[in-house]
Amino acid sequence: MIQPNDNYSIMVEDLTKRFGSFTAVDHISFEVKKGEIFGFLGANGAGKTTAMKMLCGLSKPTSGNALVAGFEVGKDNEGIKKNIGYMSQRFSLYEELKVWENMRLYAGIYGIPEKQIKERIELMLESLGFQNEINTFVKSLPVGWKQKLAFAVSIIHNPKIVFLDEPTGGVDPASRRQFWELIYQAADKGITVFVTTHYMDEAEYCNRISIMVDGKIAVIDKPQTLKMQYHGRNMDEVFRKLARNAVRS
Amino acid sequence: MMSKTPFSAFVRKEFYHIFRDRWTTLILLIMPMMMLLLLGFAITTEVKNAQILVLDPSRDEATRMIINTLEASEYFEIKGEVTSIEEVETLFRKGDIGMVLVFSEHFSDKMLHTGKAQVQLITDGSDPNYALTLTQYATAIIGGVVQEFSAAQGSIPCQIHSDVRFMYNPTLKGGYNTVPGVLGMVLMLICAMMTSISIAREKEFGTMEILLVSPVKPIVIILSKTVPYILISLINLTTILLLSVFVLKVPVTGNLLLFFLLALLFIFVSLSLGLLVSAVAKSQMVAMLISGMLMMLPVILLSGIIFPVESMPLFFQWLANIIPANWFIKAVKKVMIQGLGFGAISFELMILSGMALLLVLLSLKAFKKRLD
After folding, report:
1. Which of B102, B118, B153 is the last residue of a domain?
2. Is B20 an 8 Å CB contact of chain A?
3. Containing domain of residue A208, as a range?
4. B16 in a domain, yes or no?
5. What residues of A are in contact with residue B6 (Cβ under 8 Å)?
6. Nearest chain A Cα to B216, which residue?
7. Contact between chains at A101 and B16 (C-beta distance less than 8 A)
8. What is the mean pLDDT of each run of 10 residues along chain B (372 residues)?
């Protein structure tokens, strides 16, 4: 059991997931502070998606403990689900619904009272600059806009934590910058951001990052500290030095 | 309140999906009618105005009477006469002729004096079903005429007179068989196939993941998916009934309430079958193939809509028994055509309920397994 601590939104202790004889996630332990932007890095197959799925309550841990937003993973998944937002690498809004219909649907899913829905949607449209796109079908939006919309929808219920699984995959650099501005806005509002990414320049935008290698967390620290420690000019070099030792991938 | 809002939000979304796509709407609402009309009119085992030729060396009273009666029936049309048996083959090859009637010489005399007059029916065996039906109809008509003729001549009729009566369907209309069959097929198609496809689509597009991370219970998602299809099934049920009564002239003799109760039970069975498929299928394509191959094809082939199950090998008859649609079709025939009550279909209702229970348990298990 982990003692709940108000300073942390995520606390993980020896979290493990095995599929048969394969250990996808091998006794990882870490904490994420409240309001922090936490980068969760690792090569493909390092186990980051599996770890994230456990934290979101989508997959049961084989052993170990984790507290997410104060709720125990595997025991109180309902509590977790109410307090987190989630956006996946696969674009996940309904393409054949209009912008406002998608917003309305997710507002309904998260049980936002009918009276507040309209106001929330208007606020969201404004912060995205989407006022003219309210009746546009999502399928006709450019990819970068879709990602922004998906992010806004994932925090429509003001969650304590938002999990972003490679949110900027396939998006051009300019759109990625805009996307990160939205992430900063959310963090300013006190939402903890837990993000996985393949882009090492994005890793530098995070407050702290962890790098997973072969199911274990190899390092966890501020980007600047890691760069100094591993004598890298940028995160890319740090990542390469660490991932070189990987057995899997 | 909390649980009601997501549900209605979902149901609204499902309706958008269906009714925004004009083709989906069209297919869901028009296709059942097309199926009924196609199967009702086109695929029929009834014979109408089959063209026949006559080779009649006797040209006496009895043969004329037979020919006239055949001509007068709506089943046959006398196309003309041939003079030699050699002509027959060339005429068959042309393909328009359904049957040739060959009388023996001195037909009336032989019949009256020896009781052994002969008539030969030659049909095109390359279409055995059609050929069989033609000969059956012709034999029945000829038998009747011979009977009448002998009686009129005052001789003792030596043949056994068989009076055939088709209960519940006196004129042997194909629609009596088609309508229940199409009902079974359409409900299966819409409830099982469409539900499984729409769930598989969420998985394929990745939206299912988002829904599973949300606080909404999976059961709410699944229930909301079934609502539009239940509604569409009920609409289709009504249009099919109206078409069958007013266009195919198949009457509804039984209790409508009992009929809809039966239909609801079958809808439930089909929905749970669709859920089971969607628990296994990861993409729309797979869902479509599984539903098409494992559910639609057996229903079409083994439900007796086109081929009679009674004349199939034992293995297929046994196989037909595990198809839910067959029990539904059987019960529909009893309620709709024979006008029987609850007691008569209690066995079918029991089997269908058992199947529903089994399918729901299986699909719940399949869903749980996937979440671990």
Report:
1. B153
2. yes
3. 35-59+77-243
4. yes
5. 108-111
6. A109
7. yes
8. 68 89 87 86 71 87 87 86 82 81 85 79 80 84 82 63 63 73 88 88 85 85 88 92 88 89 94 88 89 83 78 86 91 88 91 93 76 53
| CB contact B16 to A (< 8 Å) | yes
pLDDT digits (tens, 9 = 90+) for A164-218: 998 988 888 888 999 999 999 999 999 999 999 888 888 999 999 999 999 999 9
Query: Distance from B18 to chain A by nearest Cα, in Å?
Result: 10
The answer to whether the complex's ipTM is over 0.95 is no
Q: Quick check: is B272 in a domain?
A: yes
B69 and B88 inside one domain? yes
**Pair (B206, B99) in one structural domain:** no
Domains: count for chain A: 1
DSSP chain A: -PPP-TTEEEEEEEEEEEETTEEEEEEEEEEEETT-EEEEEE-TTSSHHHHHHHHTTSS--SEEEEEETTEETTT-HHHHHHHEEEE-SS--S-TTSBHHHHHHHHHHHTT--HHHHHHHHHHHHHHHT-GGGTTSBGGGS-HHHHHHHHHHHHTTT--SEEEEESTTTT--HHHHHHHHHHHHHHHHTT-EEEEE-S-HHHHTTSSEEEEEETTEEEEEE-HHHHHHHTT-SSHHHHHHHHHTT-S--
Q: Does residue B293 share a domain with residue B148?
A: no
What domain count does chain B have? 2
Owning domain of residue B220: 4-43+173-371
